[in-house]
Amino acid sequence: MKKHIIMSLVFLTGILLASQSVSAQASDKTKRQLYINAQGEVSDRGMKLGYISKEDIIFNNKGKKLGFIKNGKVYDAEGNSMGKAKKEGRYYNDSGEFVLYVEGNDEKCKILDPKGHSLGYIHKNYKLHACAVHCFFKENKIEEDTDAILAGYMNIENALVDDNSGSASEAAAQLLNDATALNETHMKKTLEELSKASDLNEQREHFATLSKELYTIFKEISLGGETLYWNHCPMAMEGKGANWLSLSEKINNPYMGQRMPSCGSVKETLK
């Protein structure tokens, strides 16, 4: 029971940390300091951000599900694996990298990054929920990186429209190198697989996954005045169909390429 509660703590902390970004250059007074209390409520200097339910599900103040913990593993709201919570609140992401740990065993245990920098505090009953700090910190920061993410995504898309496998790989690798918030989410794996693939069909499969993942996020955040179009091609993926995002209503199909570049239609507009 104690281990279960600790895991919840780590998880919740991460989710709410994600709702705001912390500047690496900011002073300790301006950095976000989350606190998860004995009731599982998450706050930042007295401002409530969300809570952890008894079922280890993380919600923000609007009641939106942000993620959950199950059997020591951390997942986002869609069930994608984010990492693992271990003893003493130690958290490792899906790449096996050590991300944070919890120090202490009282009402205000410290949440620290690998260098010992403070990320916030957590009640001893929720230690294992501290892992959420990392999982969702960058997830919500995507809103700040929207322009860079869309630019990189469109470069991949345009390469696939042109049936240019080499350029698609290079564009995916460049988006990874741009170090946007995507690199702190499950989408990093998708980009890595796309960048390593040399076959157009395989690249398009990864692109379809990336498109769906980004669509789910872009539906929930502010696009800063940008308009996105969610398109569908019923003939893509050998008739299974696939979707993609675009900045224009004009159809340029990344799945059919130059064979049928105008195949498809707009299914939804995001603003």
Structure description:
- The chain is 33% helix and 25% strand.
- The chain is of the alpha+beta class and 271 residues long.
- The strands form two sheets. Strands 1-2-3-4-5-6-7-8-9-10-11 form an eleven-stranded mixed barrel.
- A hairpin with a 5-residue loop joins strand 10 and strand 11.
- Helix 4 (165-177) packs antiparallel against helix 5 (187-196).
- The radius of gyration is 20 Å and the shape is elongated.
Percent of residues in helices: 25-40%
Largest sheet: 11 strands, mixed, barrel
Count of folded domains:
2
Q: Would you count the extended β strands for me?
A: 14
Series of H and E elements = HEEEEEEEEEEEHHHHHEHEE
The coarse overall form would be elongated
| Structure class | alpha+beta
Poorly predicted regions are 1-30
Count of individual helical segments: 7
Notable characteristics:
271 residues; alpha+beta; eleven-stranded mixed β-barrel; 7 helices; 14 strands; 25% strand; disordered N terminus
List the helices and strands and how they pair.
Blueprint: H1 2-18, E1 34-36, E2 41-44, E3 47-52, E4 57-60, E5 65-70, E6 73-76, E7 81-85, E8 91-93, E9 98-103, E10 109-112, E11 118-122, H2 132-141, H3 146-161, H4 165-177, H5 187-196, H6 200-218, E12 228-233, H7 236-239, E13 242-246, E14 265-270
Helix pairs in contact: 1-2, 3-4, 4-5, 5-6
